[in-house]
Predict the 3D structure of the following.
Amino acid sequence: MKKVLIIILALGIISCAPIRVSYDFDKGTNFSKYKTYNYYSDMKTGLSELDTKRFLESLDAKLESLGIIFSETPDFFIDIKSNTFQEAQRNTVGVGLGGGGRNMGGGISIGLPIGQPNASRQITVDFVDEDLKQLFWQAVSESSYTPNASPQVREDQLSAIVEKIFSQYPPKQ
């Protein structure tokens, strides 16, 4: 029984693809001056309406924990964009056929895909100073995406993405 639980746990960990995040920021920015935020009113996130709500709720909670509060007269605006794409199929089986003899040879090989391609989602979060009219911080996350996941799984995944995105905010100068 113990071995079965260990195998199930290992498979669960393996199936969870990591969240990769890349950051960029204006090195001359004084991040301590940014204490209030708001979202662009015409923001098109690329997420479903429910996923947008989940992502924004998680984002609001994380920013509040960092001491940055929502305001109608913000220090900066947040823009969120996302897109989904299919990763290249990596799991294949090779089938080969060959022959040769008397200084001649030949062969054919075919790679047959196994399983379904993995869907990935990229979410970009931009912090824009409207007074200066410039982007001062950006995070781009990439992670696996399951379009037919349950609402709880979606919420957990979006919360994990937000946590990973803000694990390096404010950046070390």
